[in-house]
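Narrative of activities, Objective 1.

The group set out to show that a structural description can be obtained from nothing but a protein's sequence at a throughput compatible with the screening campaign. Below is one input-output pair from the validation batch, recorded exactly as produced.
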Amino acid sequence: MISGFFRSLQAYSKSIKYLSKPWVFKYLMLSGFISLLVFGVLCGVVYVFGGDLGYNILGNFYDGDAPNWLILLVGGFAKFILWASLFLIMKYIILIVSAPFMSALSEKLEEKISPGYKDPKPNQLYSTIRGVRLATSNIVREILFTFPLFLLSFIPAFTIFTTALIFLIQAYYAGFGNIDFFMERRFSSQEARRFISKRKGLAIGNGAIFLLLFIIPVVGAFIAPTMATLAATIACVSLDEYNTSMEYDNF
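Output recorded for this entry:
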């Protein structure tokens, strides 16, 4: 698991140089604008509905005005819950809407760095339906795992641990989605789950950087889908069962 995690981190470092390649540009632009649009809507929702959350929540328990420090504390925590909940949905919207572009990018990269690669020519309609079904299933699974942690987060003693676990779960499923652009050419949904279950570190490493990129204003959200897809493909192609030698320098 740890080796897979570091394999993903290493793949991100190798993916950086591809962002400037002409054949990557159109995928970067398309996925970047989709990501920025969805992320901008998320920020807008948090801004509009998150401003008075602390005051509104405490209003149900206080007849008068609650202490300012308590309003700030409750409001900050409520914003975190709102942000995490919306971010959970947001990353799946980005993955689903950008899937046709990212699938093509993953395949294009594999053609270039894997000398023995043969195009399986998958059915595009089947791939799209499969991707949507897998993403929907992952949303349900992620909610089932994170909801109990959200509840535990209201207990101060558990907040630090639940926050870390929520991030790891989100990273795992985000990485799963990015790696699936590689897996969809090879595996059914069930086979993809078995592949990832044996390589959890690979998914967590990819998803963690994907999520952290959104911290970087504008640029992070713009490059996140493309960079994560490149890194996921590089990491998977480097696995021994697929290819023992990759060519990075000529493209």
